[in-house]
Amino acid sequence: MSQRPGETDDYLSLFLNETPMIDTRAPVEFAKGAFPGAVNLPLMTDEERAEVGTCYKQQGQEAAIELGHRLVQGEVKAARVQAWLDFARDHPDGYLYCFRGGLRSQICQQWLHEAGCDYPRVVGGYKAMRGFLIDQLTTLCEQHPLLILAGQTGAAKTELLNDLPHSVDLEGRANHRGSSFGRRVDGQPSQIDFENRVAIDLLRCHHRDQARPILLEDESHLIGRCVLPTPLKDAMARAPVVVLDVDMEARVEHSFTNYILRKQTEWEEHVGQDEGFEPFAEDLRASLGRIRKRLGGLRYSQLSELLEQALSAHRQGDPHLHRLWIRALLEEYYDPMYDYQLSKKADRIVFRGSTQEVREYLTDAHPQ
Label partner for 142 (CA 20 to 30 A): which of 77, 213, 321, 346? Predict the structure, then answer.
């Protein structure tokens, strides 16, 4: 498309190059969804934006613009312009945008110009970039081959996937470890943030190699509270599957490390070493509680008792009893569920093997 100096509508380059961007929308807009690398340096606060919006509805655009200039002037304006100048100095290759690429980003650009800095903006703003990513995600899911890495809970699929090129870590983008125990202490991104990040990852893989399948971990439609976009879910349901087979001892150990040792450390880093154990313990109880109905009353009661015994020993400095309830949960709950789900994918399995065998297959065979 044609564009004037100081503008771009090359959304593809912005995302492929991880371009730093100033998001000039209000914080409430930014919190609903933004892009990796974008920093929220708003023209107006949430309260100021609400006042201007009300004025616009009641008195029209001219009165709203006048109110906006009254609200953002003097020291307030100087501080916001300085924040943009600092960003522009640190990121001379960056851009700024607002919601539609209209008045707010034009005002920011003008104020920067008056301060001696000509900084480019994105035509169409957030709305156009978001639309571009949705369209690209749909197209890629229809046209680019995918490959699914499956394996039982605790098989360290995510670690293997992240060691391999041309892969997208859906759990990483959802900031969740995938199972009912997979909640992370610092929470999950908004649904829109999750979708944007996944779309950009797929886009980058596609442009690195348009023929080689993109490797994804086998996931249900929900990763915590993040929902797989429908085009991606449907494409994954059609894709060939590679199965990672790992023995029970290794899976228990991996689960113990991830869901006990690392989770305890995360809580201690989050709330303090002395205060971290109780929220860590409550996290485990809540995770088990989320699958109570599917476990059934008796099995839940037995596992809950094992968990409490393990927590009691853990408080005294011995975390090893956790392996007992982890093993029981894998054998009695996760493995039967996995076997059932895998049986429905049997006709799509193209390879299965140990970690090393799967690694070699995915690294050397480059399956199409």
Answer: 346
From the number of C-beta atoms within 10 Å of its C-beta (0-12, 13-18, 19+), residue 181 rates as buried
Active-site amino acid positions: 98
Hey, is 91 helix, strand or coil? coil
**CATH 3.40.250.10 for the 7-131 domain, yes or no:** yes
pLDDT in tens, the chain (368 residues): 334 458 999 999 999 999 999 999 999 999 999 999 899 999 999 998 888 888 878 888 778 778 778 887 889 899 999 999 999 999 999 999 999 988 889 899 999 999 999 999 999 999 999 999 999 999 999 999 999 999 999 999 999 999 998 999 999 999 998 888 889 998 999 999 999 999 999 999 999 999 899 999 999 999 999 999 999 999 999 999 999 999 999 999 999 999 999 999 999 999 888 899 999 999 999 999 999 999 999 999 999 999 999 999 999 999 999 999 999 999 999 999 999 999 999 999 999 999 999 999 998 755 44
**CA distances for 141 relative to 137, 232, 238, angstroms:** 6, 6, 10
Encoded tokens for 237: 């349901």
As a whole number of Å, the end-to-end CA separation of the chain is 35
